Structure formats: C-alpha cells, structure tokens
Amino acid sequence: MLRSKVRVIALCAMTGIVLAAGGAGPAKAQSSVWDSTISNTNWYVPTAQLLAYLSPKTGFSNPVPIGDQTLWTLGTATNGAFTGTSVAQLRIGPALLTDTSTIQGFVTTSGQITMLFTPTGGGTATVGLGYMRNVNGVTSMEMQMITGDSLLVTHWAYMLPYDPATFTPPPSAPVPANSVPQWAWTAGTPWRIVSPTLFGTQAPGRFVITNYQNGYFWGAGVAPTGSTAGGFTLLGSVTPEGSVLFNTLSRGSLTSLYGAMSGNASNAQMLTSTYDLAGSMTGDLATMSLIQPYGAALRSAGGRVGLEAADVLYRLSMTSAGWTGSMVSGFAALDNLSGPSLSNAVKQTLPVLTGAASQATYVSQQAFRQTMTNRLDDVRSTGWAAGRNVWMQPLGGTAQQTGRDGVPGYSAAGAGLALGADVAVSSRAIIGGVLGYSHHTISGSDDAVPNRLGLASYQLGLYGAYAVTSDVTFDYQLDGGSSDNGESRSLNFMGASVGGSYRSYNGHAGAGIKTRIPLRDDLALVPALRLDYGTVRSGSYREGGAGGFSLNVDPQVYQELVTTAQLKAVYAPTTQVRLISDVSVGYNALNQALQIGAAFSGGGDGFVTRGLSLSPWVYSAGLGLVAAGNDRLDLSVRYGINATPSGLVQQSGHAVLKIRL
C-alpha cells in the first residue's frame, strides 16, 4: 500500500527563520489577516515545482526524481486556523500513486505556516512548514516537507490558488526546471557542520553537497572524530528566499532540520533547528558553514607556496574522499585552519624539501667534486714527476639554504671518505681516479614544516691535466655516482608521518684552463677559467604512512652549467710549506627553477610544487696550507666557503694525506 511506503508530500518554506534562544518557534497569535486568502480555496503545484525526490531510508546518496502534483482543498479559516484535505499524485517512473491526507493548519500574522498532514488510511503524520509569499503578484504558499516510512519523499513548491471550474492543474511529472538558480553553486561544495543533536558533541563534522537540481541538494558527510554517529547522507531543499529543509540519514535514523541559508559561493551559512509536530523549533540547533577553498585562503593571505596542492586537496575533499576513507581526518583538520596555520599545513603535504631535493643532493656532493679540483691545483703548484701517487681525503661539510618568498630552505651536513690515485703518464700529463662514499642528512629549515632527506652516496671520478706550456695548464674531471635516498615528512596538522625511498643518479663534467704568473720567487698568482656541467636525476617514488595524503612523486631532474673565473695566490715561504688562497665568481647559465610534480595517493589531479627561486651567481673563497714532510709524503688542509645572493652558504674543510709510491 502506498501509505505504508510513502506518506506524502512535502513542502515548506522560509527565508528567515528566527530561532529564539530557548528554541521555541513563532508564537501562534490569533489573527484573521490571512483568513480571506485561505478560506474555501483550492491550491496546486505549478509546473516549475512539480519535481520531487524519492529515496529509500537506507540512504540519500542517490535520490530518484519523481513528479508530485499535490492538490489542497481548504475550508473556512478562522483567526489563521484552517482545515482541509490533500490529494498527492506521485509519478514514479510509469506508475502513478495517489495518497489522501487531512490537513490541520495555521498561519501567523507574519505569514509563517504550519500544516499537519495525517493520512486518511492511518499512519505517521507529516509536518509541512512554510511562508505566505507574493510571487509575480499572486499570493502563494511556499512550503517544504519530507514524508514517508521506508521510502522518503521530499518536496518544495509555491502552492498557487486555482478555481477547479476554470483551470486544470498540470499533471504530475518530474519536470527538471530551474526556478532556483541562485543556489546552484552549492553543487560540489564542502561544509562544516556543528550539531550536538546529530553527533552528541560540539566538535564539527563535515559534509559535501554532491548534486543540486531546482532547489534540491544531496550528498554525504561524516561525523567528527570520536562521535558514534559515523557517516551520514543528506537530502534537502532550499527555496529562492533561502528557507532550507535539511534531512540526514545515519544508520537508518532520520533527522530533519529547518532554518535559513544565507550568503553566496564565497561565504555561506545555514542555521537550522529540529522541530516538533506543531512546527515549533525545539532549539536543537545545527549550524553549517561553507568551507572556503584552501588555495583561496592562502592567496588572500599573500602565500604562494603549495597553491596547486591546496587547490587539488580542496577538489579532492569534494569527492567521496571527503567523507569516507583515510583522508577524512586530514580534511577535517584543514577545514578548521586559517592563516599561517593553514599555510603550514599545506606546506607539510608537499614533497620533501619543497621540491629542492635534487638540487640539495647536488650541493651535498660538492665536497667530492672538490677533491679532484684540489688535487689538480696541487699538481699544478708542485709539478708532477714520474711515479704513482695515492691520496686519501675525509669528506665533510655543511650547507645552509635560507628560505625565500615563503618557501622553506634547508640545512645539510655530512661526512665521508675519498680515496684517489694518479700517475704521471709523461712530463706534461697526469691522469687519475678517485672513489668515495658519503652520508648526508638534509633537513627543512622551517620547524613548522618538519621533513628530512638522508643520502648514502657512492661516487667514482676520473681527472687529469695537461701542461700546454710551462705556464698554461688544461685540466678536466668526469665523475658520477648514485645515492640511496630516504625521505620523511611530518603532517603535524593530522598527527601523521610519511616516508619513502628512491634512488638518484648524478653526473658532472668539468674543464678548466689556468696560467701561473710569478710575482717573485715565493709568490705567484694563478688565474683560471672553468666550465662545469652537473646533473642529478631522481627516480619516482611512492610514500606510505598517511593514507591518501601520502604522495606519488614524479621523477625530477636538476641541471646546472656554471662558468667560473678564479684567482688564486700561492705563497711558499719555504720549500716544504705553501699557503694558498683563492676567490672566484661563477654564473649558472641554466638557472633552473626548482619544481617537482606529484599526486596524492588518495586521488585527484597531479600538481606541481614550485620551490626555491635561486640566484645564478655563486661566490667562493678558500684558504689552504700544504706541508711536505719529505719527498714521499705531504699533508694539505683547506677551508672553503661558497655563497649565493639567494641565501645558500656552503662550508667545507678537508685534510689530504698524499703518499708517493
């Protein structure tokens, strides 16, 4: 029987309901202002509002559009009170179902309407709420309601008066009209909801309006963490004036809320309350507020870091990931952040070192490359002789990159060991090789965005020099290697950590020409010009540990091409001791922007993280001492510093023990 499945019909309206502090609804003062409008009249649903929605009580996720033509016959109204009958005709696919109810109604002086529909065949009564409205010069009853048992029907309409003798109302049909375009923007929007009635706590839950059609909206949501309510689905209606009927289903339990929606796509709210069979607000308030796009909040605060990730996260929060699965707690946390807190949270979701991992890897391996440069300088200073030389150099140094334009920098520290050997193949040429191992730890410089990268690097190099003339030398070096990298990030805003591992490969080729200009027997200047190309290629990797907020990171390539002009001074107070100082300036012709692509494992589009903007200029200085104990053994020490105008400061120190075999 129809009455056992659908207790029809609906309709209720409002623009601004004022919810008293005590929760009571509008007082039903005696008034005859509307009696003549209502008495002995007939009312129908115009074509633009024939659409209604039907849903099983198992959930509102996929309501079915149906047609609803409801006809009212009202008797005499006295001081706002009236009675009558309602005949609802529901068009559900090819079937036409009819249900009849009695009406007991009341309208206040201000035009607020309460109507109680009681099925004539018995069953649960339904409350309809609304307002008297003037629509295109015609007085109408704007009404909203939800009705039913195992099947639920919700409907809103401007009920219009008619004369049965001269007018035939349109038949029931699910007409997809567009009579409420002003709220169409709600489709695909996430909302925060605070409802002690639904959740048993003041903590906010969240829901997403997934669809909208002619004043109807539906979607799904999730209760706040710790609530026993769990997930819920929703189906509601909103009139052009902003009267909203908000219905939720959680584990088969229906909760209906009535109130007002206000605002626009930039800032909107709903203020609602539960109500009783008399249409009185019970005071069990629920407030909903539109969640602003994360990226828009960052832009308004002047931030630029992570904008693409913020936009992707916001769009992802409007999908099923926003109310079910591993990302819900993270979205709930982001929803309640703003300003610097939101900016820091978004930065925490970005790839390690905000896209600077490959560049930082190249910087950290400078100490190994410097070993060959130093050895070639040493050869030029002392000359080479027949025989083999074996040398060993511990590797160590630090690098500090300050943050720029809101992008966090990093700090690196590490140590290792390099072993080399070379041989003079003629009186004018030398060739050698070196291998090394080092371990570095690189950490982000912003304590609010904790992340780190660990590198275990294996390097192999080839170097050589050729004396073009007695005062001019050409030298070269070629090196490369691989690093096993482990990265970790803390997502403090959601109490999670992520980590991943990948391998990177690096290569470097450099060549230089230098000349020696003696100033006196114990002092000489050595100007030089170098060209160095370097690259790091990092593989893709997948993180784990934070559910959908873990990242799938794309491969990354960093390259630089540096031309360097250097001036070195060599002072030899004795034949066994040399003091060496040098200054240089370099220019990176590639000056590559630091960026990396990634995607959240929970879904959504890929995004690009645009990191540090670095200066192409590099300034260096160094100071060293070489002491020869005898013809077969000498020791050299050196301190060097590199700096850029964009805040990179790199310091290194080494001690080299060379043994001639």
Question: Explain this structure to me?
Answer:
- This protein is mainly beta and 661 residues long.
- Helix content is 11%, strand content 54%.
- It contains nine helices and 34 strands.
- It has a twelve-stranded antiparallel β-barrel with strand order 18-19-20-21-22-23-25-28-29-32-33-34.
- Strand 14 (243-250) and strand 15 form a beta hairpin.
- Helix 4 runs antiparallel to helix 5.
- The longest helix is centred in the middle third of the chain and has 17 residues, at 366-382.
- It is rod-shaped, with a radius of gyration of 38 Å.
- Mean pLDDT is 91; it is low at 1-27.
Features:
twelve-stranded antiparallel beta barrel, rod-shaped, mainly beta, 11% helix, 661 residues, disordered N terminus
In short:
The protein is mainly beta and 661 residues long.
What layout of secondary structure does this protein have?
Layout: H1 2-5, H2 35-38, E1 42-44, E2 51-56, E3 64-74, E4 81-92, E5 95-107, E6 112-119, E7 126-135, E8 138-148, E9 151-162, E10 189-194, H3 196-199, E11 205-213, E12 216-222, E13 231-238, E14 243-250, E15 253-264, E16 267-275, E17 281-290, H4 294-300, H5 307-317, H6 328-335, H7 339-348, H8 357-364, H9 366-382, E18 388-401, E19 410-424, E20 429-444, E21 451-467, E22 472-491, E23 496-515, E24 517-520, E25 523-538, E26 541-542, E27 551-553, E28 556-571, E29 577-588, E30 595-600, E31 607-610, E32 617-630, E33 633-643, E34 648-660
Antiparallel strand pairs: 1-3, 1-9, 2-3, 2-9, 3-4, 4-5, 5-6, 6-7, 7-8, 8-9, 10-11, 10-17, 11-12, 12-13, 13-14, 14-15, 15-16, 16-17, 18-19, 18-34, 19-20, 20-21, 21-22, 22-23, 23-25, 24-25, 25-28, 26-27, 27-30, 28-29, 29-32, 30-31, 32-33, 33-34
Helix pairs in contact: 4-5
